[in-house]
From TrEMBL:
GO terms for molecular function: omega-amidase activity. GO terms for cellular component: mitochondrion. The keyword Hydrolase applies. This is CN hydrolase domain-containing protein. The keyword Hydrolase applies. It comes from Agaricus bisporus var. burnettii (strain JB137-S8 / ATCC MYA-4627 / FGSC 10392) (White button mushroom). GO terms for biological process: asparagine metabolic process; glutamine metabolic process; oxaloacetate metabolic process. It comes from the Eukaryota. Keywords: Hydrolase. Residues 9-276 form the CN hydrolase domain.
Amino acid sequence: MAQAAFRSFNLAFIQLGKIGVDKAENLKHACDMIRTAASGQGQNKKPDLIVLPEFFTTPLGDAPLIPTHAEDIGFTPGEPYDITNSKSDSVKMLSDVAKETGTWLIGGSLPERDAVKEGKFYNTCTVYNPKGELVARHRKMHLFDIDIPGKITAKESDTIASGDALTMFDTEFARIGVGICYDIRFPELAMIAARRGCQVLIYPSAFSMTTGELHWELLQRLRAVDNQVFMGMCSCARDAKAKFKAWGHSMVVDPMGKVLAEAGEDEEIVYVRIETEELDRARQGIPVSGQRRFDVYGNIALFPD
Ligand SMILES: NC(=O)CCC(=O)C(=O)O
């Protein structure tokens, strides 16, 4: 893979609120918020890249809504895609607003209907360039199936099928790796993306209230430091009435593990300047990438569980 460009840029995370049962209203609200974020709100922060959270069209934890809210995206990575004939309202909105605002856009995620794998759907993120072209798609690879007795039981795999590909895309300012929420718990994904030249990793997300306090910041700082990359997770806002209450606290961490920006719990737009020097400083000062011992590790995928 060719060396990726890297220059300083502005990033905006939309910690979106008001995600209700009406998909059209959710789309309209997301579109309004993207326009607001793109304006930079008069603070000389006009973003090059805007990010939405996980499941921005459909309330998380409301599984019966998934079949009605799911959309046919019909995108195959690497193949041309005709947005004007897309069957997805969300794809059309995201493409239009990326073009209108002239920004890169990581369009959170939404339930995707495909040739429906075993009657399930995908939890899918789509990415747009400033011309409004759909350039990448990530299907959540690791599904949120957990059981912490008395606290939380979740089985995302009841309705969602797992994706089977890593996702990264090139902009004029960085190579960016994409995952979705629970994907953060699997260091291999971030490690491979970093080794393939990503300087920035961004995961649309919505952590649980049980795990958020201990793990949300910790996991992002770990992935950032392990891989010497910028790491960010963009969450939904917390909604006290929702079935799944999101932790919020959308965050961006630098390659030394320093938290550059953090939202609260409510709807909010977080602006961050990503400075190339921070990555160079971390990698030059602590040169772990040249000190790895692959001669000793061998193929870790072959180790027994
Ligand atoms: N939406 C999710 O994947 C939730 C992940 C989460 O809360 C975690 O602890 O991991």
